[in-house]
Design goal:
This protein is an all-alpha fold. The chain has a single domain, classed as Orthogonal Bundle (Arc Repressor Mutant, subunit A), CATH 1.10.10.
Length: about 130
């Protein structure tokens, strides 16, 4: 099941669903501040191996990949729907240096953040206003 599909249902039904539900809720709240699995296993009072088994069995992705998927989705959304400076986005997503943010974005998109924004922007940026000549 995909993350998106799971998020649509949102109702725990089976024994492991409570763990899955709680994990996804924690990830939604803390994926920027806590990218390490340890935080989530501590919060859920579960071993890393058990969490990995449950999450990977359900989604086909490791808990770490789920966390990074949330981060990826949000970064792409911010790059395409806002004109916030890249440096501001870098720090707002918990990266210590713009170069690390750039490497991360390039790894998930194949292009730099500025190039991704230019290719996929939904809203025009305010920096390049078009002059109308009469």
């Amino acid at each position: 099941m995909t993350i998106e599909k799971y998020l649509q249902h949102r109702a725990p039904v089976q024994a492991n669903d409570q763990i899955i539900w709680s994990f996804i809720n924690l990830v939604e709240q803390y994926y920027i501040q806590h990218k390490s699995i340890k935080f989530y296993t501590d919060q859920l009072n579960i071993s890393p191996r058990k969490l990995n088994d449950i999450i990977e069995n359900y989604f086909g992705l490791s808990p770490s990949k789920i966390i990074h998927k949330f981060l990826e989705i949000e970064i792409k959304k911010e790059l395409t729907t806002t004109d916030k400076p890249l440096k501001e986005l870098c720090y707002s997503f918990g990266f210590n240096k713009p170069s690390t943010f750039t490497k991360y974005v390039k790894n998930i998109t194949g292009v730099t953040p500025s190039r991704y924004r230019a290719l996929n922007a939904v809203l025009p940026t305010t920096k390049h206003k078009t002059k109308i000549l009469f």
